[in-house]
């Protein structure tokens, strides 16, 4: 391989590695976003359950059931 081919090969290798790193970072960002979404959904469900329990407690206290 002459110097020109070697430089082109190395540039291609570097480009491929940069694309792979970018892809990995995007995967990590996507996973983090999914995890955050799931955590928010879980927190929302917990709030709903607590609200239902509070409403039931008020109904019990008022004899409204």
UniProtKB/TrEMBL annotation:
<feature type="compositionally biased region" description="Low complexity">
    <location>
        <begin position="32"/>
        <end position="43"/>
    </location>
</feature>
<feature type="compositionally biased region" description="Low complexity">
    <location>
        <begin position="1"/>
        <end position="24"/>
    </location>
</feature>
<protein>
    <submittedName>
        <fullName>Late embryogenesis abundant protein family protein</fullName>
    </submittedName>
</protein>
<feature type="compositionally biased region" description="Basic and acidic residues">
    <location>
        <begin position="47"/>
        <end position="59"/>
    </location>
</feature>
<feature type="region of interest" description="Disordered">
    <location>
        <begin position="1"/>
        <end position="65"/>
    </location>
</feature>
<dbReference type="InterPro" id="IPR039624">
    <property type="entry name" value="LEA1/2/D7/KIN2"/>
</dbReference>
